[in-house]
C-alpha cells in the first residue's frame, strides 16, 4: 500500500493538470447536461452535476479494472515492458497536446469513436435528467467518450501489473478531473478563461511530459527517485 500512495497522488495530479483538455472535450457536454436539467430540478443542480461526475469516474475505474486484468496477464511476458513504454509515450504526447505544441494525440481518440457511436443513443434516451440515478447512469455512459487523456492514463494504470491498483489509479485520476468539470457546470465562462491562458496550458503540459519521461523505463528513474 505505501508504494501505491505516490502513484495515486500522481494520478490525481494528472487529472488536475488535464483539466484544460477536459474542458475542451467535455465542457460543451457539461453545459448541455446542465441545460437539460428540467426547470423543476434546477434547485438540485449541484447534486445532479456531482452524480454525473460520479458515474463518469466509476466508468474510468471499471475500464481500469478491465484493462488492468489484461495487464496482469501480460505482467510476466516480454510485452509488459512494451506496454509501459507505450503508456509513457502517450503521456508525453498528451503533455505536448495540453501545452499546444503538438496535436497528434487527437488521432488516437478516433479509436474509440466506433464504441461511442453505439453508446451515444443510450445516453440521449436519458435526457432530460429528472433524478439522481438517471444522472449517475448518464455519467457512467459519458465516461466512455473518446479521450486521449483517458486512454493515456488508462494504459499507464494497466502497466502496473495489478488490476485493483489499475482501478484505484483511474479512480484517483477521475477525482482529479472533478474540480474543473463540476465548476464548469456551475461557472463555465470563468473557469474556461483561466484554463485557456497559454501559461497555464504550457505549465500543465510540461508537467505531464515530465511525468511521461519519469514513467518511461530506464536508469533515469532511479536518479529521479533519488532526487
UniProtKB/TrEMBL annotation:
Domain of life from the UniProt record: Bacteria
Keyword Repeat belongs to the record: no
Keyword Membrane in record: yes
Transmembrane segments: 12-37, 57-76, 82-103, 135-158, 164-188, 200-217
Pfam families (alphabetical): DsbD_2
Keywords: Membrane, Transmembrane, Transmembrane helix
Every Urease accessory protein UreH-like transmembrane domain range: 11-213
InterPro entries, per database record: UreH-like_TM_dom
PANTHER family for the chain: HEAVY METAL TRANSPORTER, HEAVY METAL TRANSPORTER-RELATED
Record-given protein name: Urease accessory protein UreH-like transmembrane domain-containing protein
Protein source organism: Pseudomonas putida
Phylogenetic classification of the source organism: Bacteria, Pseudomonadati, Pseudomonadota, Gammaproteobacteria, Pseudomonadales
Amino acid at each position: 500500500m505505501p508504494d501505491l500512495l505516490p502513484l495515486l497522488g500522481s494520478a490525481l495530479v494528472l487529472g488536475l493538470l488535464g483539466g484544460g483538455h477536459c474542458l475542451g472535450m467535455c465542457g460543451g457536454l457539461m453545459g448541455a447536461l446542465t441545460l437539460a436539467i428540467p426547470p423543476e430540478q434546477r434547485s438540485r443542480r449541484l447534486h445532479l452535476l456531482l452524480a454525473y461526475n460520479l458515474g463518469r469516474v466509476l466508468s474510468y475505474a471499471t475500464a481500469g479494472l478491465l484493462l488492468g486484468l489484461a495487464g496482469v496477464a501480460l505482467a510476466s511476458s516480454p510485452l509488459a515492458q512494451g506496454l509501459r513504454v507505450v503508456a509513457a509515450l502517450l503521456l508525453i504526447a498528451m503533455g505536448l497536446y495540453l501545452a499546444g505544441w503538438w496535436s497528434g494525440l487527437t488521432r488516437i481518440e478516433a479509436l474509440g469513436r466506433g464504441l461511442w457511436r453505439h453508446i451515444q443513443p443510450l445516453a440521449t434516451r436519458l435526457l432530460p435528467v429528472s433524478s439522481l440515478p438517471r444522472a449517475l447512469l448518464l455519467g457512467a455512459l459519458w465516461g466512455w467518450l473518446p479521450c486521449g487523456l483517458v486512454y493515456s492514463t488508462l494504459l499507464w494504470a494497466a502497466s502496473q501489473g495489478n488490476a485493483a491498483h489499475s482501478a484505484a489509479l483511474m479512480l484517483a485520476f477521475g477525482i482529479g478531473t472533478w474540480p474543473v468539470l463540476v465548476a464548469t457546470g456551475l461557472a463555465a465562462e470563468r473557469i474556461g478563461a483561466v484554463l485557456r491562458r497559454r501559461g497555464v496550458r504550457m505549465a500543465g503540459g510540461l508537467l505531464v511530459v515530465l511525468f511521461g519521461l519519469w514513467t518511461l523505463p530506464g536508469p533515469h528513474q532511479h536518479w529521479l527517485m533519488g532526487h
